[in-house]
Amino acid sequence: MRRAVLRPLAAALLLAAGAAQALPYKATLLVRADDPRLARDRLERAYLGHPGGPASDGLQVAIKEAAFELDAAGTALTLETVPVADAAAARAAAQKAEKAGAAVLLTDLDAAATLAVADAVQRPVLNLGAGDDRLREADCRPRLLHLAPSERMRADALAQTLSARKWPQVLLLTGPSPQDAERGAVAQAAIKRYGLKLVANKPFKLSADPRERNLANPLLLTGGASYDVVWVVDSDGEFARSLPYRTVLPRPVVGDAGLVALAWHAQFERFGAPQVARRFTKAVNRSMTAPDWSAWMAGKTLVAAAVAAPKGPQAAFEKALLAGSFDGSKGVVMSFRPWDGQLRQPLLLTDGQGVISTAPVEGVLHPKNALDTLGADAPEKLCKARP
Amino acid sequence: MKKTLLASLLALSGLAASAQTAWVSSEKDHALTLVDLKTQAVAGVINTCKRPRHMQVAPDGKRLFVACTESGQADVIDIASRKSVGRVALGDEPEAFDFSKDGKALYVSAEDEGALVTIDAASGKTLASVPVGKEPEGVKTSPDGKLVFVTSEVANMVHVVDTASGKLLKNIPAGKRPRRMVFTPDGAQLWVSNELDASVSIISVKDLAVVHTIKLALKGARAEDITPVGLAMTRDGKTAFVSMGRANHVGFIDVDSRQLTKTVLVGKRAWHVALSPDETRLVVSNGLSDDVTIVDVASAKALKSVPVGRVPYMAVVLN
């Protein structure tokens, strides 16, 4: 008898728990199991734009440094990291996390696995590491947000810079991987968009084989043409690193070595950036790379959303995340573009030693927000899954 | 009668011509540049500690305290002789500070640690430390000395600390990246600049809550390019001045109506605005053009931009 009375009460309590957000907000980060990018020999190379360590570092730093703000708002955020072997495992892990009450998912995965996660859950998904333009265009999703700048944003930043420097003649060298081919096409489109001139597009290959010297020798690759810059597309990084100062003409190298467009560099001096880089180094004992900034920035957006909706409900948290504006110590407020979920942001042009300049470059105009000159803009309507 | 008029005119012109000097800290030179407001030229350079930023005259009116972020010290400079007369330890990464009412203690924002640190102004001993949000910036003691306000650029709030108990009383949410503060002369309102919000929040000191937000707009500039930092106010509490950062202007705000009434084009990235003691001039520090702009308050016109050290942070104008 007594039990029969209690049962509906328990059910009512459960319902109530379902309606309000169970605090703390749980965030689940899915990463590559045995991430080859984080192997010691890769980390030691420290190629520009490549990860310097796990994505969880930046997230943890962002959440930890917001402890005061979260406490004051009476809310909390926790982070769980789950390594996944492939897209199928990513899908399963995402569903499991959602069932277990995750308020948001984050991914540092390749494009296919990122999509698998976005399609598996109702919760918002924050893509930290995949710059593939297709995730913002043909394969975009309504609740998939991108912290990392797209490849097109990086190519636009570089093309704007070359245009501002009046270095229009570009010799493009493109690597052998499928990713290089994709990024090479993105570079060519940016070259065209900003009125630069493609002198030639030559394939290169890392090789010591004398029979392949036309593909591998910087002098043979950069001879017999006149150009202002050599733009190298090398997702691997080894060839690009060897290229500066080895061209036939004394011209700068840009792209994946020389001058590189990135989301962040630890030597950025403005807008409180040195404090951010210093806190990061203090916390994890290494320098803050561009992918670290994207992960840290993801943490900042989660903190802002949690503070905006300290007690939930989930819908308010999501609204604050998708429609909020955020401070990431790059001098301007940033927000997710409604048309493709990309975080609009300035990019830094770096030679690896310091920050040479920023993009959008001064003088590049846009009817609404100059940041939207980097990457796909609304009128292009490249993402059909969003309004 | 005529004679008196002449005498008072002379006195007035004497006042305007009295040697008002802007002391400008520049972050990258480890030096202060002195700009004579009459000749509108550099009148001297004083070497100081490393990365000088915030400066404030001690309540005795005789000494200028200069907070050096890299040295973790304040350089104490005798204003009359323009000589350093001592150094006071300020802890790691001090950014800004204010004095206690009796001048015996300094309240310092410790940028990296995220704390408001109370320091004995004579010995440099740390007396207390209150954790606040990350990147604390502006510090202001209330005119009655009972409260200290400190902004946190990361937590987007103004923290209120009770000076007697040393306890955090309240966190007041402000706009994005709150930076600098100024009290109305009656001490009833605290004005706070919000760098990434193109706005100034007005806090009621009685209620410890934001009662009004002034949105700053400028013809030809987008909201995201208006990044207010520096604030100053006239002694009669009628006019406030705000440096508008990337919009390269300084704005005049009518305090009663809370309206932006005039704007003056100054240098690149106007970071800080200082009012001269006679309130006839503004000295605006331009962070990205390495100069200060001298503005005539009455006509709201820029008179001259004077090159100073690298990355000027702020100015204090002294007689």
Strands, helices and their partners?
The complex is a heterodimer of chains A (387) and B (319).
Chain A: H1 2-19, E1 25-32, H2 40-45, H3 55-65, H4 67-73, E2 77-84, H5 87-99, E3 102-108, H6 111-120, E4 125-127, E5 144-146, H7 151-165, E6 169-174, H8 178-193, E7 197-203, H9 213-216, H10 218-222, E8 229-233, H11 238-242, E9 253-255, E10 260-262, H12 273-284, H13 290-308, H14 314-323, E11 325-327, E12 333-335, E13 347-350, E14 355-359
Parallel strand pairs in A: 1-2, 1-3, 3-4, 4-5, 6-7, 6-8, 8-9
Antiparallel strand pairs in A: 10-13, 11-12, 13-14
Chain B: H1 2-17, E1 21-26, E2 31-36, E3 41-47, E4 52-57, E5 63-68, E6 73-78, E7 83-89, E8 94-99, E9 105-110, E10 115-120, E11 126-131, E12 136-141, E13 147-152, E14 157-162, E15 168-173, E16 178-183, E17 189-194, E18 199-204, E19 209-215, E20 231-233, E21 239-243, E22 249-254, E23 259-265, E24 270-275, E25 281-286, E26 291-296, E27 301-307, E28 312-318
Antiparallel strand pairs in B: 1-2, 1-28, 2-3, 4-5, 5-6, 6-7, 8-9, 9-10, 10-11, 12-13, 13-14, 14-15, 16-17, 17-18, 18-19, 20-21, 21-22, 22-23, 24-25, 25-26, 26-27
Could you describe the 3D structure shown?
The complex is a heterodimer of chains A (about 375) and B (about 325). Chain A is of the alpha/beta class and about 375 residues long. Chain A has helices spanning about 1-20, 40-45, 55-65, 65-75, 85-100, 110-120, 150-165, 180-195, 215, 220, 240, 275-285, 290-310, 315-325; strands at about 25-30, 75-85, 100-110, 125, 145, 170-175, 195-205, 230-235, 255, 260, 325, 335, 345-350, 355-360. Chain A contains 14 helices and 14 strands. Chain A is globular and about 65 Å long. Chain B has a four-stranded antiparallel β-sheet, with no helix packed on it. Helix content of chain B is about 5%, strand content about 55%. Chain B is mainly beta and about 325 residues long. Chain B has one helix at about 1-15, and strands at about 20-25, 30-35, 40-45, 50-55, 65-70, 75-80, 85-90, 95-100, 105-110, 115-120, 125-130, 135-140, 145-150, 155-160, 170-175, 180-185, 190-195, 200-205, 210-215, 230-235, 240-245, 250-255, 260-265, 270-275, 280-285, 290-295, 300-305, 310-319. Chain B contains one helix and 28 strands. Chains A and B meet through α4 and α12 of A and loops of B.
